[in-house]
Amino acid sequence: MPSISMKISCPNYSCPSYGKRKQWYKKNCGHYARLDTDLDVYCGANKCKWKNGRTYVKIHKLKWNCNNCKVHKHDLETISASLNKISSALIKSMAKGTASDKDKDFLDVLSTILDKIAEEIIKNRK
Known about the structure:
- By secondary structure, the chain is an alpha+beta fold.
- The protein has a 4-stranded antiparallel sheet with strand order 1-4-5-6, covered by helices on one side. Strands 2-3 form a two-stranded antiparallel ribbon.
- The chain starts with a strand and ends with a helix.
- It is 36% helix and 14% strand.
- It has helices spanning 76-95, 101-125, and strands at residues 3-5, 7-8, 22-23, 33-36, 40-43, 56-58.
- It is globular and about 45 Å long.
């Protein structure tokens, strides 16, 4: 399943790190986190388990542990806005011709993730 390293900004709009990509880590093991196109966050180094006993947790169920703010829960709309901010920056770099192949691959997976989040938001509103 396609995935990206969770190098995304804090979803909290008032956070000083909003809009700035940073690597997120799984709190109890300290390994870097990854996000797949099923909206699952998982340990990028091992198959470390979450409190739910599984090796993954849905991104909108995740407890965010940001060093710069105290907001830990975010809904899909907030997460989507944060991911769109990153997408926009990557698209601008592609338009300027400064995006790397790695950035293009990241953006490809990120666009699939954003599509899935949009589907979830619409499904939850019905």
